[in-house]
Amino acid sequence: MPEEGYVKFNCDWIKADSVSESLLSEINAWRAKMFKLGLIGMFENGVGFGNISVRGPEKNQFIISGTATGGIASLEPEHYTIVTDYSIEKNWVECKGPIKASSEAMTHAVIYQSDKSINAVIHVHNLAFWKKLLEKVPTTKKDAEYGTPEMAEEVIRLFKETDVKEKKIMVMAGHKEGIVSFGKSLDDAGSILLSYFEKEK
């Protein structure tokens, strides 16, 4: 069973009101598609997997699904939080909202950092899909575990050394089943992911 769902960074959580529902309609629509396909969900051991985020509402911030929400079919505003700051060096993330940020928040953060035109990130799980894409699209090193500074550094390396910016999809070799897509919008990120998923079936 893949290890997933456990936050590995230090999290400063500022408990606050729910994220505005008006900001969540598009993100919920795409998350529902991923959930229906089983790309976001819950393992048999009860641990959730997969997460989704969008840039905003303020500069250098992003809205992301909260920790341990993978198994919930339909998310509500209380299932999202806003990442307001982070540091790879300190292995630290600050978030503000009714729930702590997903265990992949640091990975999302460095994707947004690496390309200012990126406005959405989707992280999914599927073993067969993962195996078929492994090393065929930009792939992180096997010794980089999810949610760690090492994974964050690997993502930054991919942006510097590969064509990940053009492909808009990557595989996490050290995070079994983990695949990430991104784009200038959720439609962009979701369409890229689904195009590969349909092709690799």
Descriptive keywords:
single chain; 201 residues; alpha+beta; L-fuculose-1-phosphate Aldolase; nine-stranded mixed beta sheet; two-stranded antiparallel sheet; 6 helices; 11 strands; globular; disordered N terminus
| Total helical elements | 6
CATH top-level class: Alpha Beta
What would you call the shape?
Answer: globular
In total, the number of strands is 11
Structural class: alpha+beta
What is the average per-residue confidence, as pLDDT, rounded to a whole number? 94
Strand adjacency order, main sheet: 1-7-6-5-4-8-11-10-9
- Give the uncertain stretches in residue-range form: 1-5
- As for the CATH topology, it is L-fuculose-1-phosphate Aldolase
Radius of gyration: 15 Å
Level-2 CATH architecture: 3-Layer(aba) Sandwich
Strand content: 25-35%
CATH homologous superfamily - what is it?
Class II aldolase/adducin N-terminal domain
What fraction, in percent, of the residue positions are helical? 25-40%
Tell me the count of domains: 1
Largest sheet: 9 strands, mixed
Report how far the terminal alpha carbons are from each other. Answer: 22 Å
**Series of H and E elements:** EHEEEEEEHEHEHHEEH
Description:
With 201 residues, the chain is of the alpha+beta class. It has a single domain, classed as L-fuculose-1-phosphate Aldolase (3-Layer(aba) Sandwich), CATH 3.40.225. Helix content is 30%, strand content 25%. It contains 6 helices and 11 strands. A 9-stranded mixed sheet has the order 1-7-6-5-4-8-11-10-9, with helices on both faces. A two-stranded antiparallel ribbon has the order 2-3. Helix 2 runs parallel beside helix 4. The radius of gyration is 15 Å and the shape is globular. It starts with 9 loop residues before the first strand and ends with a helix.
